[in-house]
Every structure is written in structure tokens, then in C-alpha cells.
Amino acid sequence: MIRMLEPVKTLHILVRTSGLALSNLSDACYAIFLRYLANSDVSTKCATLRALSGLFIARPRALLAVEHSGVVTDILSPKCPPQLQVEALRCWKDLLLTEEERVESGNAKKRMESNEDITLSKRISGDQDGDAILVGGVLGQHSR
Predict the structure, then answer these.
(1) Is 0.70 topped by the overall pTM?
(2) Less Cβ around it within 10 Å: N or C end of the chain?
């Protein structure tokens, strides 16, 4: 069974206290997707993984929360249905390809240079590739 991260509380907090806005839309989607991931229907879980994959492309650091909860390990365990494992591998392949394309195209550097809040020291440290390293690291530890 796939673990949940308490998305119901998260969703309740997002919608009740702050209202749904563009600034918290990805957080609300994340909470909803986790709720659907807990569903017992395999096709629903596969669709949810595709949706989460899109969220991870937009916000790669959200993958850390899912990894920390053990969801990735659960999906890749022998107890998980093969259809879900195959869908997860497809989604993660797409995620890695997107990150590779983003880094190679220089979009990360352009975005960082356009953000006035990023200091020179962060620019020098190569922080523009941090999300790509994060995605590769999280998914790479499960490749064994």
C-alpha cells in the first residue's frame, strides 16, 4: 500500500485559510494528487503519477517530499502492481529528460540571471543546475 503524506490536512489548510490563488495552486494540486494516489484503483494511481510528474517538472523540489515519505520506494517495491511501476518509470524518464533539456538549453541560467533576488555568490555556485541534480539524485538512488 502506498503511504500518504497527510494531504487532507494540507488541502484543508490551503483552501480554508488562504483561499486558492496562483501562488498556492501547485501546493493545492500536490495535496489533491496525493489524495488520489491513495486510491486503490491502479488506473487512477497511474493517472495521478502522470499528474505528479507534471508537477515535478514545474517544481522539482516537490519530488523530495514524495521521496522522503517513502512513496517512491513503495511504488518500486515488488508488492506494487506492475502497471504502476511501468507508469512510474515512464514519468521519471520524462522528468529526467525535461531536466536535461532545461539545463542544456541554458534556461536555468537565464531564469537565474533574470531573478534579482539571487546573489552573485549563488550564481557562481552553479545553483542553476541544483534542480537537475536533485531529480537525478532522488531517482538515481532507486536504480539499483
Answers:
(1) no
(2) C
